[in-house]
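If you are new to this repository, start here. Below is one unmodified record pulled from the training split, so you can see the exact layout before writing a loader.
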Amino acid sequence: MKSFWFATAVFTLLTEGAPAHAQFGGVVFDPTQSAHAIEQIAQGEQIFTNTVTLAKNAIATYNLAYQMSLAPQSLYAAYLSPSTYWMLLNQAANTYGNSEALMNTANSGANAQYSYQLASIPRTGIVSGYPTLSTPGQQQIAAQGATTDLSDAVTESNLQTLGTMRANEIQREQDIENLGSASHSIDPSEQTDMATMQRVNQAMLLQLRQQQEANQLQQAIALQQIVAQKQQQDAMKAGSQDAADYNSNYQTNIAPINFGAAQALSY
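And here is the target side for that same chain:
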């Protein structure tokens, strides 16, 4: 009896304590451990795939960096347009000795007043008989003289401005060439971030300078237009003034002459 109850107890413990296990030739199969092993294998495959992807990205980055290091000499070339180079104005024939100075001013901006007056008809002083003219006559003569003076002053100032701009542009052409050479250089010191930012900053400064010069040109054109408008307005005002004064001048000067001539013919 004792042997029977002991065998029964052992069988009960074996069947109740490990219901999920089975035995095949002495090997115990555990489904839980098998699922965990499959999961570890999948994770290993994912890690391997990620490693291969990282390696490919690293190789692509290296190849791109290598191509960029060779870009100035292999991937593109500098665009050159000799027709855009700034050059000095050609000297005009100096037949009477008064042309060369003006061309020098147009190239440099120096001695604008002297060179312009040298190549122009000189200014005249107050015309003779000006004090004896009527007030409207003095106004017309003075207005024409002011137009001449203002036109000379504006033209001389604009000539100086344009000459200075031309001289600066010729020097700036060298700056642009230096920027181009540095941008296409294979020197490692020219390919750093700081060197690139400096070139970008210099290019922006050149652009701002060109905008400032464009504003100066617009101001010069506006001044020329103001003087031309003044000349037209003076002519219109003088014509209106002459028309208004015609009647009084006729009655004062012309009518007595006509009356005297008629009296003479009646004898």
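Two things worth knowing about this chain: The first helix runs from residue 2 to 17. The chain has six helices and two strands.
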